[in-house]
Amino acid sequence: MFFTLIRLQFLKSIRSTSFAKSMLTNVLMGFLVLVLLSYVVGLGVLLKAILNMAAPGEDHIALLNSFLIYFFLAEFLYRYFIQKLPVIELESLLHLPIGKRKIIQMLLFRSFVSPLSIIAILLYLPFAIEEVSGKYGVMGAITWISAITLTSWTIHWFMLWFKQKFEDSLIGLFVIFLALVLGAGSSYMGWFNLGELMKPVFDYSLTSPFPLIGMVVVMVVAYVLCYRFYVSNAYLEDLSEEEDVRFVNQSIGIFSRFGLAGELANLEWKLIIRHKKSRTYLMLAGFFLLYGLIFYRNPAYAADEGSGINWIFIFVGIFITGIFMLQYAQLFLSWNSGNFDFFLSKKQGVESLIRGKYLLFMGVSFVCLLASVPYTFFGWQFLLLHICCFFFNVGILMHLIIYFSLWKPKPMDLNKGAMFNYEGVGAAQFLMILPMFLAPYAVYVPFWLLINEYAGLLALGVFGLLGLLAFKPLSQININRVLANRYEISSSFRQEL
Amino acid sequence: MIQISQLKKQYKEAVVLNVESLEIPKGECFGLVGNNGAGKTTLFRIILDLVRATSGQVKINDEDVSKSEAWKAKTGAYLDEHMLLAYLTPDEYFETLRKIYGLSEEDLKQHLEKFTELFNDEVLGKKKYIRDLSKGNLKKVGIAAALMGNPDVVMLDEPFENLDPSSQIRLKKLIIKEKENSKVTFLISSHDLNHVTEICDRIVLLEKGKVIRDLREKAEMMSELEAYFTG
Known about the structure:
The complex is a heterodimer.
Chain A: H1 2-15, H2 17-21, H3 23-54, H4 60-82, H5 100-112, H6 119-166, H7 170-189, H8 195-205, H9 210-232, H10 236-239, H11 259-274, H12 276-288, H13 291-296, H14 312-328, H15 340-344, H16 349-371, H17 380-405, H18 427-431, H19 433-450, H20 453-469, H21 471-484, H22 486-496
Helix pairs in contact in A: 3-6, 4-6, 4-7, 4-8, 6-7, 6-9, 11-12, 11-16, 12-14, 14-16, 14-17, 14-19, 16-17, 16-21, 17-19, 17-20, 17-21, 19-20
Chain B: E1 2-11, E2 14-24, E3 29-33, H1 40-47, E4 55-60, E5 63-64, E6 75-78, H2 90-101, H3 105-113, H4 116-119, H5 135-146, E7 153-157, H6 165-182, E8 185-189, H7 193-199, E9 202-207, E10 210-215, H8 218-230
Parallel strand pairs in B: 3-8, 3-9, 6-7, 7-8
Antiparallel strand pairs in B: 1-2, 1-4, 4-5, 9-10
Helix pairs in contact in B: 7-8
Pfam families (chain A): DUF5687
Keywords (chain A): Membrane, Transmembrane, Transmembrane helix
Transmembrane segments (chain A): 21-41, 61-82, 103-129, 141-162, 169-190, 210-230, 280-297, 309-335, 356-377, 383-406, 427-448, 454-471
């Protein structure tokens, strides 16, 4: 029975319409996963050399052990974003005489078969063989690596439970935030050394099997917790249905000044708030606001020639003020794939829909610009940078991205998460990354080389302002493109959903 | 009101719709019947300009539907859930439509009052998104939406499907009332011969994309259709 279910799962993923349709995407994704995993292996092999360089002469094993807690915190974070919940398939199985326990076991097992489960092994096994086994013998190496792996797997089960219970809720966000603060803040700010907390456990695991046995127990407990939770909640309304998001139902009043387009901008805002995928995009925009912290104070990108602006900052500025627009607009019409006919059947419907989206993008970009003002603290040039990038984003880049995204839009299901969900993504979405990166530099670089950095920035701003002045004709180009392709778009949206 | 001429829809070799000419006068209740795959929904979609006709044209109020948009203000339709905004609650959805059609709040209230009986207290004032409604209630929302903004033409695809018997009867009453009071032209496709012959003045029977019967005599409709469908 178990294998029948596994086989069904396999068939499901092979035969899903999106699999065949986006073969290219899948191949690329598989390739990407392999590349990332090989990086992990590479890092594992080099771990010894890296530690040697960073802290010559110290006890590397002890050092590594004190850092392990950060690895697990990071794992907690990336699992939160990447790991998928296995309950989506539940609907088609629950009514069969299989038994909930079996189904849940199968779903949990399936979730375990994932590249995420071997990252810890890939990363630490070379070090265990090279270094630990030399010092503490083969037994020591085995117990050490096993303890690490089991901790990682414990996080896997814990995360399945945690995400199901708290995803999309304020508690979930709060815990994630806490993990971030703990991870980055504690040692950096010198409050307390988190590393010392977990170090004894792994130190002890080098010489004794007890920590290993302890971790086995902890993992089994985590599994049972997760399993029990899923079995007792294996009802459609508990697991599959999305909880209602009631706290953000308000419309944005200012949009209603823009007539029908404003109304539709409001609608789009509701769409964003009420679907998982778009909400994740919005959250990402928030995270990207912090992007500047990595770059602006980084000595590696310290100002060339005293102007305070490194060429890489343009890219950062474009991202900070426009990441939401750049991401969301890539799937421009796919967001409305479930109800495109609604807009088609209204007078001026499609036109207003597009204008509404424009309005929304500008609004969100503007909010991002306002939120990025504190960067002025690092220097006035960053304010100027952000203002110029903002204008370039809403004046030029926005039209460009939308133009590309209208090349064969694909339908997608908004109720699935956004991470590693490539529904609606086609070749166009990969190709449009190019103009996104190239366009700002195409404007900036000539002025920078000929005059100086500030001239480059001003050029960005002026181009953006010109684009803004020409908003009507530029947006009309994209509107006409949609109107001309409306039959193809609407039929592709209808057939595949 | 609606003129269809030389209309043809072809997917590669397969002709799915081939209507030489069809005229639907104002105020008529036009019923469309036919087995699965006869082309009923395709015809509706072409009339609404959701699907491109391979050749031929459809005119509403003498406007070619694929060339202008003015007719959309006076045409209401509910074909399937793609025409709803599933992430809104019914109240929000009607409110959005009110703004799109430029109606006053009083207009909306009056309009929704007509549906009190049909909604049966299960649609309005509930904190539930449209995507979570049952199929029957979904249909009711769609029908009420299609009738908003005093349309001249209303197109409904299978309006009786998924409705409970009382709702079916209420819907019939509602359609007849609208037809008499506001001279609305109804285009209704249905598999339920009893309902459709009862409310419609004219029934057109499609088979493999072709009009094979055009019945106007109420007395003969039922027997003719029964004869056809029993084969």
